[in-house]
Amino acid sequence: MNQKTAFITGATSGIGKATAEIFAKNGIKLILCGRRKERLLALQKELSKLTQVTILAFDISKKEEVFDAITSLSKDFQHIDILINNAGNAHGLSTIQEGNIDDWNAMLDINVKGLLYVSKAILPQMVVRKSGFVVNIGSIAGKEVYPNGNVYCASKHAVNALNKAMRIDLNKYNIRVSAIHPGAVETEFSEVRFKGDVEKAKNVYAGYKALQAEDIADIIYFVVTRPSHVNIEDLIVYPTAQASATILNKN
Ligand code: 8X3
Fold it and tell me: Which of 9, 206, 213, 251 is most buried (CB neighbours < 10 A)?
């Protein structure tokens, strides 16, 4: 198999970082993206021992930054085989009537529009080559709506819809499109959602064994390494203690 190149958004932490690590171990060339340059540089240093790595520091919610960053890629990294649309955050957890509009804008700008900007910048080359793989990281929040989840759930329902839309629009170009929808994964997710309230965040993952970023990364690697005629369309992944977005067997 020729060496593949993967473009990973939100690579500085959580599922994105774990995916970068398992891809690197398996010799996949990496384009790691995120806002935090220091973290990107540290990851590049570490993973360069295993594979070729370049980094792009940009804010995915800024259209110009996205296109400028992707067009700045050196020749070596311009051919992208695998796009992992992973960047996404939850900001706040409150009712619609009490919701913060800046939080709403951030979630829609990052989770939905950012994913679209990156896809728009990268898909055309896959269409021309009639080959490529897109993995969209959704959430159980894209399948269910739970109390106070409103706009985050809406953003992940949009990812679910866009995943299906991409599969339809790209079908005749031999491009595979998959979505992974995790339940509770123990990452910085809740700390961001609760704006740095570490205690509140810890409580989300207390009393049961939550999924780890590596669990989802393993599945992403499995998905992108199926034979070329196999496309895993959609996966919901829970920790064993979870039965729905709101049912968790905590002790
Ligand atoms: C993360 C899972 O249940 O907090 O997307 O929405 S949940």
Answer: 9
For residue 164, the SS3 value is: helix
Residue with the smallest CA separation from ligand 1 atom 5 is 139
For a pLDDT cut of 90, what percent of the chain falls above it? 99
**H/E element holding 189?**
helix 189-193
Specify the residue with its C-alpha closest to ligand 1, atom 6: 141
> Which atom of ligand 1 is nearest the CA belonging to 190?
4
**pTM, whole model, 2 decimals?**
0.97
Q: Is 118 in the pocket of ligand 1 (CB under 6 A)?
A: no
- What local confidence, expressed as pLDDT, does residue 2 receive? 78
Give the residue numbers annotated as catalytic, written as ranges. Answer: 152, 156
Q: Residues 233-242: pLDDT tens digits?
A: 999 999 999 9
Ligand 1 site, residue 141, Cβ cutoff 6 A: yes
Which amino acid belongs to residue 210?
A
Topology of the domain comprising 5-183+212-237: Rossmann fold (3.40.50)
